[in-house]
Amino acid sequence: MPEIKVVNMSGAEVGKITLADSVYGVGINSAVLHAAVKNYLGNQRQGTQSTLTRTEVSGGGKKPWRQKGSGRARQGSTRSPQWTHGGVALGPKPRSYRTKLNKKVRRLAICSALSSKVAADEMIVVDSIAATEYKTKVMADMLKAIGAGKKSLVVLPEKDEKAIASLSNIEGVKVALYNTINVYDILNCNTLVIAQDAAKKIEEVYAE
């Protein structure tokens, strides 16, 4: 079982935590991680892009020239795709990019992502992340003291509006609750900063 040191908000070591192998010590499945990231990014797309076909652009009702005898290629409309100001052939139309992953694949992807952070020594466990006031400097000092990277994902065990607001003001920092984490955010950060209680709650959710 992976064993990681626990630090306080000042960066001092206050103990160790043993994490479950079934969540933080699984093999890294790159194919599942790719599927999960593709699923997440696809679900973020609005899919509202649209182009006009030859039936939707204005004009083109009159035949440009007679069918035969002009020496030019036959044309029926000035709004065909080959004409300037013509319609677009096979262009994008509004559609949904949403895909679905089954529950076992989603669970394996989350565990693989968490395990990759543990294996790369990019996960920092803090005994408690809390704020008594709306103060960005307190949270910035905490991240600096514990050695968090420029892009950090901070995972909290419960909603703390003061902590969330203070952390959200820091460039490159994203905040999530233990039950809203996703594979993309975990892989996209340099450092995963997680509260001790949140680490245990994640085990309860994803452990088999």
Which terms summarize this structure?
35% helix, alpha/beta, six-stranded mixed beta sheet, 6 strands
Describe the structure.
The protein is of the alpha/beta class. The chain is 35% helix and 14% strand. The protein is built from seven helices and six strands, in the order ββαααβαβαβαβα. The protein has helices spanning 21-24, 30-44, 103-119, 136-146, 161-168, 183-188, 196-206; strands at residues 3-7, 13-18, 123-126, 152-156, 173-177, 191-195. A six-stranded mixed β-sheet has the order 2-1-3-6-4-5. β4, α5 (161-168) and β5 form a beta-alpha-beta unit. The radius of gyration is 27 Å and the shape is elongated. The model has no long low-confidence stretch (mean pLDDT 94).
- The poorly predicted ranges are none
Find the structural class using helix and strand composition. Answer: alpha/beta
> Strand-residue fraction?
5-15%
For the termini, the CA-CA separation is: 15 Å
- The shape is elongated
Helix content: 25-40%
- The helix/strand order is EEHHHEHEHEHEH
Oligomeric state, counting identical vs distinct chains: single chain
Mean pLDDT: 94
The strand count comes to 6
Strand count, sense and barrel status of the largest sheet are: 6 strands, mixed
Tally of DSSP helical segments:
7
Spatial strand order of the main sheet: 2-1-3-6-4-5
Radius of gyration: 27 Å
